[in-house]
Amino acid sequence: MADLSSVQEVRDVTKVDRIGAHSHIRGLGLDDSLEPRKVSQGMVGQAQARRAAGVILEMIKEGKIAGRAILLAGQPGTGKTAIAQAISKAMDKDVPFTMLAGSELYSHELSKSEALTQAFRRSIGVRIKEETELIEGEVVELVVDRPATGSGQKVGQLTLKTTEMETVYDLGGKMIDSLIKQKVAAGDVVTIDKAAGKVTVIGRSFARARDFDAMGPQTKFVQTPEGDIQKRKEVVHTVSLHEIDVINSRSQGFLALFSGDTGEIKPEVREQINVKVAEWREEGKADIVPGVLFIDEVHMLDIECFAFLNRALENTMAPVLIMATNRGITNIRGTHYKSPHGIPLDLLDRTLIVPTTEYSQDELTQILKIRCEEEDVEMTDEALTLLTSIAKQTSLRYSIQLITAANLVCRKRKGTEVEKSDLRQVYSLFQDLERSVAFLKEYQQQFLFDEGDGSALAAASAAATSGAANAATSNASATTSSGPTAMEDDDDDL
Ligand SMILES: Nc1ncnc2c1ncn2[C@@H]1O[C@H](COP(=O)(O)OP(=O)(O)OP(=O)(O)O)[C@@H](O)[C@H]1O
Ligand SMILES: [Mg+2]
Q1: Is the pTM of this model over 0.90?
Q2: Where would I find the AAA+ ATPase domain in this sequence (predicted)?
Q3: pLDDT tens for residues 266-289?
Q4: Which of 99, 397, 403, when mutated, tests ligand 1's pocket best, judged by the most ligand atoms within 8 Å of its CB?
Q5: Is 79 part of a structural domain of the chain?
Q6: Please, what's the b/e burial string for 160-180 (b: 16 or more CB within 10 A of its CB; e: otherwise)?
Q7: Is residue 99 part of a domain?
């Protein structure tokens, strides 16, 4: 059995998930009537925006409406990206969701319009229905004849049966290889996809249960199939228009899908594919599934990109476009004109705007608590209260980052629960924006390339204290920062 030993076993690799900024978000946390639960699926508060997201989700699920644009607008750290993540988690698996940051459009290899076109076509799914012929039955016998010389084509026969019939199939080399790989033996119930040459072992036949006495706990027993061995089955798979483009563009080939290095795709290729897909739709072989394109930091787009979006949204196959921004009234990139959120008015006019608002003390505590659970950190109630007040004074993001750091300090002193002292230590080790600005103000002369007029610092400190980057709408008067010692003073009260 020299051949068998060379067949390598395929082992499942245990998937290791890293903890990311939004890994605690598992859905929108809505009940059946789209009312947001207070704390659910990792989501806290932000009720209005979540309710709106629920309506959008329904719209996506219906899949009938094309080309709607939604803008999530609000201060930094109010959960815009989190809500978009939640929508993607709550969507059906076969509806495409593409995520793109505005800054990703500027690359030397792809023009902006090509990158946007690819993003749009990635977000449009084509559900293709196919009928395939399957062979399903219990293996009675598998005979493999090896050539006497040891090389050359293997041949063999496979005998399959159902409750009603028994058939012998001749096997080619490829089919023998995949049968051996799956360790198919007499008594197994298998299905074979003839066209793809794919063998699937469903389980072992009940009738032969007594013949196997050494079995793992994972051995599954099934009934011998009934009826014909040959069956017709409808299989449905969803691919995105972009995937069809890449596979059909001769210069790329499907391997480009794995490297992601697809380059520019010729318009003629896309044209042909659109025609083909339209044909399939008419013949009832395929459906279009409009998905979601999420563009984060949409203010990074310039006027040309916005013009592209305007036009692309009018296409009947357009996906739902979700955008997010934390800007106020600011320059539209590539022009001297100012506009709300840095987005031209004609695009804003087609957009449903969903605002996100700042969190209350309670909500901050809840979010921090969820993050502690996510990062496997135990924290005393007192420390959590302190962390909440840090979040209130600085920002939610900063205090989320303190959790892991404080836990490391706690572990160094061999503690099991993060206490106030650990938080205090990391708070003094790592500065937040506000304290960093105060430091710069004090020592600005000693830094290289100092502009000296302090206008940038004024804007930064306004942003730090108001918690908003929309300097244009917020009163940008330089708020005095409370300085590096503010925290130590506060501690006694907590
Ligand atoms: N309602 C919420 N429930 C749970 N976690 C949240 C919620 N809102 C925000 N978070 C978490 O707080 C952090 C900051 O939120 P997020 O990144 O979504 O902010 P943002 O609005 O996208 O900010 P920016 O404008 O800076 O991009 C993230 O880790 C996010 O998962
Ligand atoms: Mg964001």
Answers
A1: no
A2: 66-358
A3: 888 899 999 999 999 999 889 898
A4: 397
A5: yes
A6: bbbeeeeeeeebeeebbbebb
A7: yes
